[in-house]
Amino acid sequence: MTLELSDLLAERIDDFAVPPADPGAARAAGRRLRRRRRTTAALAATTVLVVGAGLAVTLPGTGRDGHAVRDPAYASVGALDLSHGARAYADPGVTLYLGGRALPYGEVAWLDTDAVATGSGIVFYDAGRPMLLDASGEVSRLADGRLDTPRGFHPTAKADAEAPLVAWATLRDGIATITVHDLDTGADVGSTTLDCGSCGDLVIDGIDSGRVFVRDATGTRTWTWADDTWRDFAAAGTRVADVRNGVVLFTGPRPADAGDLRLVEAPGTDAQLTLDGRYVLYWSSVLQPTSPGEEPVILAVGPRTPQDGPAWYAVDTDGTILVATADHKVYDCVIAPGSCTELGRVSGEGGDPEFVGVDM
């Protein structure tokens, strides 16, 4: 298979969606498009080399558990300290910071906002195949065998906030396989298949409380892997922005029957929940509670409202909040009492800062 630079550029630009009518999401979408225009050429060139190398030298093979075979297409980036969270953020085109390390961006350009940070490392896609960059700095394949890589197939991967589980989707011959994988044991704990053709509208929006939230053009359903059952959750006009600890953050019409899940209306599609589901993070340093009667948490750095100025946010794998401010500083903030520690600076030369797995 040959990946052309023009195809990668077209795929990124063609997939850009019209932003919804809320200020935060509109501003986020504009920044994403400007950032992608500035950096996609360099990113795509690097990705073509990396993916091409992977296709040339990676042979099917499995370990004892059927997965996690080190991929020789990727050189080790060295040991990563994930004990204080992944701390995964990028100065696009310049440096990617991960687990206490500063890595040249061109060497790890495959780690972008489509990846997901976990306590065990970074899960990302290589030509439609889920991969893991673990704490040792090694990259391994999480799924083997032949897989399709059609244009427009961006299902995402999502990590559970409470357990070392990650959900992803792969595609082969028009059949999508959704898999839940335990990163601690290296074993798949559940899988199911969907006949969806090219699956260009298939997205995994979350994994929580024993179920995976799967969206396509018809709406959102939940899949419970313990008994392989599906349940309708919301119509096509509703989006699950995030789901953590039994709390579902949504936009659009309210789902009719959420079962044992607690529904909280989101201020925008790119809002995030803290790992415990208690607060909503959305374009400001004021974290709004998800339960009535609780007080907001105000972080020590960053704007108080989205209109006060730009800042970028991510919930880290240890539950802290990463904040990149307009003066190019990056902080790690503890939710209570809201105190922040400066991690470093970014140059701003490559555009807006990026957090791995957060497409703000």
Give me the count of strands. 28
Low-pLDDT runs of 5+ residues are: 1-21, 29-66
Give the H and E element order: HHEEEEEEEEEEEEEEEEEEEEEEEEEEEE
> What Rg do the Cα atoms give?
19 Å
Can you count the helices? 2
Overall body shape = globular
Category by helix and strand content: mainly beta
Overall pLDDT:
83
Strand content: 35-45%
| Sheet with the most strands, sense and barrel status | 5 strands, antiparallel
Strands in their spatial order, largest beta sheet:
1-8-7-6-5
End-to-end span in angstroms?
32 Å
Q: Portion of residues in helices?
A: 10-25%
Put the structure in a nutshell.
The protein contains 2 helices and 28 strands.
Structure description:
With 360 residues, the chain is mainly beta. It has 2 helices and 28 strands. Strands 1-8-7-6-5 form a 5-stranded antiparallel sheet, with no helix packed on it. Strands 4-3-2-28 form a 4-stranded antiparallel sheet, with no helix packed on it. Helix 1 (5-14) packs antiparallel against helix 2 (23-57). The two termini are 32 Å apart. Residues 1-21 and 29-66 have low confidence and may be disordered.
